[in-house]
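// run 5 | inverse folding | seed 20
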């Protein structure tokens, strides 16, 4: 059974609308407490923390947040600094920007700030992430791999933050043709659900493991747990993957999915 019994996650496929309706980001503010929300933006993933942090700071204030702080962690000593969590622990919503997901795990894993993030999550604080900030939510994350045909040798994976277990996330999904690499990822352990999230689209993961799709495009859920045929243990570099059968769900705004029962909901 897919494990998810703690807080809320808002996992965004990247390139979310920041100028017009801003449906996804408005939902983040709403889930964080609306006009009483205190948002912390973590820019660990990006190489341009000042620029990206400033953009989200202004945006979240415009969307109605009471307070927004930008926390730039550029090295592990900062993440372990005494007092780093003084303002962080007051957050009602935490937002990871895009960039490189390995920067997030490399900077936060095993630190005071990383432990506090887990504590806040377990208290029910919503944690959101876009693009790289989306991929990092799971216990195992995709960090590299070519689009196109599913091939075992094309894929690179690494440990994530572990907030969402037995699920692997891919982002910019349809726009970058990433179905092949998501299939390659779940072929390594068909028990794990593959979730591909398109741009300007997100999943809101509730504490009861129900997932709600929000946004203008689609979310693809791939379940290979019932597969009976695979060549994953036999493939040589560059050889195409065999994985059959699989169940695929394609869901749009307003539709839901139960991660525990692995069924879509109306």
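// decoded
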């Amino acid at each position: 059974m897919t494990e998810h019994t703690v807080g809320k996650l808002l996992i965004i496929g990247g390139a979310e609308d920041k100028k017009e309706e801003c449906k996804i980001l408005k939902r983040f503010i709403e889930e964080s407490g609306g006009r009483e929300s205190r948002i912390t933006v973590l820019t660990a993933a990006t190489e341009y923390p000042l620029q990206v942090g400033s953009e989200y700071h202004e945006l979240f204030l415009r969307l109605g947040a009471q307070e927004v702080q930008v926390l730039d962690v550029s090295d592990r000593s900062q993440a372990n600094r005494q007092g780093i969590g003084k303002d962080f622990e007051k957050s009602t919503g935490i937002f990871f920007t895009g960039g490189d997901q390995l920067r997030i795990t490399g900077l936060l894993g095993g630190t005071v700030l990383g432990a506090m993030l887990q504590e806040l999550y377990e208290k029910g604080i919503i944690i959101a992430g876009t693009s790289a900030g989306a991929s990092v939510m799971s216990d195992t994350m995709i960090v590299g791999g070519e689009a196109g045909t599913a091939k075992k040798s094309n894929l690179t994976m690494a440990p994530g933050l572990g907030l969402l277990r037995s699920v692997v996330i891919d982002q910019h999904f349809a726009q970058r043709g990433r179905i092949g690499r998501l299939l390659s990822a779940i072929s390594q352990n068909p028990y794990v659900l593959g979730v591909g999230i398109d741009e300007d689209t997100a999943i809101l993961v509730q504490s009861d493991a129900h997932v709600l799709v929000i946004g203008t495009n689609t979310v693809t859920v791939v379940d290979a747990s019932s597969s009976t045929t695979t060549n994953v243990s036999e493939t040589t570099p560059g050889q195409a993957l065999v994985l059959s059968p699989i169940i695929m769900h394609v869901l749009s705004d307003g539709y839901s999915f139960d991660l525990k029962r692995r069924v879509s909901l109306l």
